[in-house]
Amino acid sequence: MFAHAHKDWEAFKASPPGRRFQDVHKRREKEGGKSSTVRRMLLLGLGLVLTAVGMFFLFVPGPGTITMFIGIALIARQSLLVARCVDRLEVLLRPSYLWLRRRWRALSRTQRVALSAVATVLGCLMSVGLYLYMR
Predict the structure, then answer these.
(1) What is the pLDDT of residues 95-124, one digit of tens each?
(2) What is the pTM for the complete model shown?
(3) Confidence band, pLDDT 50/70/90 cuts, at residue 6
(4) Is the C-alpha dihedral spanning 28, 29, 31, 32 positive or negative?
């Protein structure tokens, strides 16, 4: 199982940005005879649930971003339309991500800790504000 996941990850990384998710979808379609409709629906449902849980955890402490990305990736495996949208989004956001990563790596450890602490406090304040607003 892990060997197959590792092989899928390597193939994903080898695909060029802007085509990765579509390539994953097409590889899954080629193997379509191996997966049943029930399995595909379960994976799609799991992707939707993980995306919703990830969106919830964006506003409360927890692994929201990673959970949401895993959910979106599972949905993109099942839907060519979603795969195309995610690929376009990757191409649009990649320059900003690379810029932020360069800036983050240029910071000292103390600056990273301070920035992380400020982000955590702001996230907590936003969560409390959202709670008070929705109450």
Answers:
(1) 999 999 999 999 999 999 999 899 889 888
(2) 0.66
(3) confident
(4) positive
Measured distance CA(96)–CA(46) in Å, rounded: 29
Q: For residue 81, what are its two tokens? A: 């339309």
What is the DSSP code string of the chain? -HHHHHHHHHHHHHSPTTTHHHHHHHHHHHTGGGS-HHHHHHHHHHHHHHHHHHHHHTTSSS-HHHHHHHHHHHHHHH-HHHHHHHHHHHHHHHHHHHHHHHHHHHS-HHHHHHHHHHHHHHHHHHHHHHHHHH-
User: Exposed, middle or buried: residue 79 (CB in 10 Å: 0-12, 13-18, 19+)?
Assistant: middle
> CA-to-CA distance for 28 and 99, rounded, in angstroms?
33
Question: What tens digit of pLDDT does each residue of 58-94 get?
Answer: 776 668 888 888 899 889 888 889 999 999 999 999 9
